[in-house]
Write a structure and sequence with these properties.
Strand order of the largest sheet: 2-8-7-6-5-3-4
CATH class of the largest domain: Alpha Beta
Protein name: Low-specificity L-threonine aldolase
Strand content: 15-25%
Organism: Halalkalibacter suaedae
Bound molecules: pyridoxal-5'-phosphate
GO molecular function: L-allo-threonine aldolase activity
Number of domains: 2
EC number: 4.1.2.48
CATH topology of the largest domain: Aspartate Aminotransferase, domain 2
Cofactor: pyridoxal 5'-phosphate
Radius of gyration: 20 Å
Length: about 350
């Protein structure tokens, strides 16, 4: 099978499995796991933040960030197709007791002036704006890169209003590699950030949240409350260290393969690539073939290719570490037969 459903499907590399085997461990709830501590220090440094925390998943990281920044009854501003709003089961309302206020973005980027006018004032009728959430790269916008300039402007608006900014940077390393800049260019315009180790970076489990020391201390308590305080977890932090040190630069190859795939698809009539393919995600509208996404996914699967639905006529294909150049050729050959 050529598995293009997500970059989450990557299997740990040999080096990761060996690192897991040899990892030095301790009880991380007592902060005694040297491997976790090393991963957190390394992540904080790379992300340009004072401190970092290893969490079980991207969703848990985002939830801890919202719980740490907000009080019940606060309002959170976020993009209408953002992962936190669209794909986290309404968790920020269920757990943090906040209400959401969505803004429509352009290729994942919210207009700073719209964010500004959505921030609440002093009127006692209104909720307090507790947090602004950004997403980069933006998943539902097809791995679109939100520009540093857009983030800077929103951060400025937020600072004036004394509202923190959380970045869901599940695939932020993809944005930095594609732009050829340091990841800190993006993170400097945030109060906190979440990055996934288990997507394009290939680790089997885990995410990092980073921010200032006070934020991470409070976040650590929320992680414990949510049952995310783990014990000899150096065994799974060890591959995270390899993810951050060895797996970042190679994301460029995933982006190249996504571009190759998109260029091939553009030459096949009836299929339309609907995103800019900034990074490793290709969104294809199949309505020109008079087909639904479900039907195309079914036909692809019968021919050995896995994809996911992104709407009634749109499918998503994602490149990653376990996808080879020849497999993109094979995928294009299959699309030509459909
Ligand atoms: C995958 C993803 C998450 C959630 O990560 P999990 O580890 O699957 O919980 C959050 N935000 C974005 C943008 C994602 O793509």
């Amino acid at each position: 099978m050529i598995d293009l459903r997500s970059d989450t499907v990557t299997k740990p590399t040999k080096a990761m499995r060996e690192a897991m085997f040899h990892a030095e461990v301790g009880d991380d709830v007592y902060k005694e796991d040297p491997t976790v501590t090393r991963l957190e220090q390394m992540a904080a440094e790379k992300l340009g933040k004072e401190s970092a925390l290893f969490v079980t998943s991207g969703t848990q990281g985002n939830q801890i960030a919202v719980l740490t920044h907000c009080l019940p009854g606060n309002e959170v501003l976020l993009e209408k197709d953002s992962h936190i709003f669209y794909y986290e089961g309404g968790a920020i309302s269920a757990f943090a007791g906040v209400q959401t206020r969505t803004i429509s973005g352009n290729k994942g980027a919210m207009e700073p002036s719209e964010v500004q006018s959505a921030i609440r004032g002093d009127d006692i009728h209104e909720p307090e704006t507790g947090l602004i959430c950004l997403e980069n790269t933006h998943n539902r916008a097809g791995g679109a890169i939100v520009s540093v300039e857009n983030m800077r402007q929103i951060y400025e608006v937020a600072q004036k209003a004394n509202v923190p900014v959380h970045l869901d940077g599940a695939r932020l390393f993809n944005a930095a590699v594609a732009k050829g800049c340091a990841i800190t260019e993006f993170t400097k315009y945030t109060s906190s950030v979440q990055i996934c180790l288990s997507k394009g970076l290939g680790a089997p489990i885990g995410s990092i949240i980073a921010g200032d020391q006070t934020f991470i201390e409070k976040a650590r308590k929320w992680r414990k409350r949510l049952g995310g305080g783990l014990r000899q977890v150096g065994t799974i932090a060890a591959p995270g260290i390899i993810a951050l040190s060895d797996m970042v630069d190679r994301l460029a190859m995933d982006h190249e393969l996504a571009k190759k795939l998109a260029n091939g698809i553009r030459n096949i009539s009836g299929f339309e690539v609907v995103n800019d393919v900034d990074t490793n995600i290709v969104l294809i509208d199949v309505k020109g073939k008079q087909l639904t996404s479900a039907k195309v996914i079914d036909q692809l699967k019968k021919r050995g290719i896995l994809a996911v639905s992104f709407g009634p006529t749109v499918i998503r294909l994602t490149t990653h570490y376990d996808v080879k150049n020849e497999e993109i050729d094979q995928t294009l050959a299959v699309f030509n037969q459909l």
